[in-house]
């Protein structure tokens, strides 16, 4: 079956590019002596997680408990949840998960650490904990090495200190390396062994070898790449595996055409760029605006006609994955298979 037969809007995943992206990153990690723990929030598909592990990844990263449960159900058995898990209900689910898989989880406060200590004590489960450190990303993470040491020393029983994790700002590798060096030296002075130093982010993936002390890296977007990664210099357009197929449904003016993909397909993420995606066959046409189910294409000339189809590289592939129940695996323009996005919407 050819992609021309598919109803639009739909998501196409170029399987040849997926395989090449997985291999390229794994080869790079192997060559530079760190492990890869890919973040599955990009694809949310168990068979892709298995492909990443079969290629050599040490395990996977999930952002949410719900994603981790889906992946555990599918047989993934070494999972990092890079998130503070808070509240009795979620801690109970965390303990159940720790009985099924080798589990690691993040913490950046005494509140979180106390919850982990309690659930480990009351259920008898064991799991590893990484202390999240803010090394310039400006999101979660303790702000000083001393805070990290306090949290590490407070963990007890089945909630075992295993190391530190950080999620740097895009382009923030140098600052992250500096901060990590300070943190690791403080742990050394305190005589506390740090087994795992987990860093991440596709924009700076190819600089991972310049971060001394980092033992693992958690790229997510690298499996699909997207327009933002091309802009960051981490990929070329030919590496982008996820595209959206859309149809022109209206052309009210010579300089305006409307496609059947709006925010519910492309999402409203701009990530600092102009336009809501890149049309592969029409690089000079701007996706200038979106409403829920309409995308506005603008150009002085060269706009496609009603009924014509376009393929779009989205600004941000990960959020598009969360919009669709199913994606189509393709090789070139041949449809190979339809895959359910099993962990889609599992944000709890
Ligand atoms: C904690 C954490 N690690 C790794 C990643 C992967 O980042 P990227 O998709 O840029 O590779 C993310 C992305 O949101 C993240 O939040």
Automatic annotation (TrEMBL):
Keywords: Lyase
Keyword Lyase among UniProt keywords: yes
GO molecular function, a single term: D-serine ammonia-lyase activity
InterPro entries: Ala_racemase_N (IPR001608), D-amino_acid_metab_enzyme (IPR051466), D-ser_dehydrat-like_dom (IPR026956), D-ser_dehydrat-like_sf (IPR042208), PLP-binding_barrel (IPR029066)
One BP annotation, GO: D-serine catabolic process
Highest rank taxon of the organism: Bacteria
Pfam families found in the cross-reference section: Ala_racemase_N (PF01168), D-ser_dehydrat (PF14031)
Annotated ranges, domain D-serine dehydratase-like: 241-331
Family: Belongs to the DSD1 family.
PANTHER family assigned: D-SERINE DEHYDRATASE, ZGC:162816-RELATED
Entry protein name: Alanine racemase
Organism per entry: Acetobacter indonesiensis
Lineage, highest ranks first: Bacteria, Pseudomonadati, Pseudomonadota, Alphaproteobacteria, Acetobacterales
């Amino acid at each position: 079956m050819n992609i021309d037969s598919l109803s639009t809007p739909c998501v196409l995943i170029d399987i040849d590019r997926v395989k090449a992206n997985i291999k390229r990153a794994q080869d790079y990690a192997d060559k530079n002596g760190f492990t890869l723990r890919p973040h599955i929030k990009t694809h949310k598909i168990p068979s892709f997680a298995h492909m990443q592990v079969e290629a050599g990844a040490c395990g996977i990263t999930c952002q949410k408990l719900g994603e981790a449960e889906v992946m555990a159900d599918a047989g993934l058995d070494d999972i990092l949840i890079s998130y503070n898990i808070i509240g009795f209900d979620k801690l109970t689910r965390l303990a159940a998960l720790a009985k099924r898989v080798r589990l690691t989880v993040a913490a950046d406060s005494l509140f979180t650490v106390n919850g982990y200590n309690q659930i480990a004590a009351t259920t008898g489960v064991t799991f590893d904990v990484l202390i999240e450190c803010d090394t310039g990303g400006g999101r979660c993470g303790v702000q000083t090495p001393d805070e990290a040491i306090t949290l590490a020393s407070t963990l007890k029983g089945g909630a075992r200190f295993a190391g530190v994790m950080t999620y740097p700002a895009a382009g923030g590798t140098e600052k992250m390396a500096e901060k990590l060096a300070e943190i690791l030296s403080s742990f050394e002075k305190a005589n506390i062994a740090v087994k795992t130093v987990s860093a991440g982010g596709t924009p700076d993936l190819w600089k991972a070898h310049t971060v001394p002390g980092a033992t693992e890296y958690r790229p997510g977007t690298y499996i699909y790449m997207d327009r933002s990664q091309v802009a960051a210099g981490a990929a070329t357009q030919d590496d982008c595996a996820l595209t959206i197929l859309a149809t022109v449904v209206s052309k009210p003016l010579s300089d305006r055409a409307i496609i059947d993909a709006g925010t519910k397909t492309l999402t409203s993420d701009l990530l600092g760029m102009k336009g809501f995606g890149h049309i592969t066959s029409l690089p000079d046409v701007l996706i200038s605006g979106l409403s829920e189910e309409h995308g506005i294409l603008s150009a002085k000339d060269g706009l496609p006609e009603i009924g014509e189809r376009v393929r779009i590289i989205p600004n941000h592939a990960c959020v598009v994955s969360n919009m669709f129940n199913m994606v189509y695996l393709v090789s070139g323009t041949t449809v190979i298979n339809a895959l359910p996005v099993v962990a889609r919407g599992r944000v709890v």
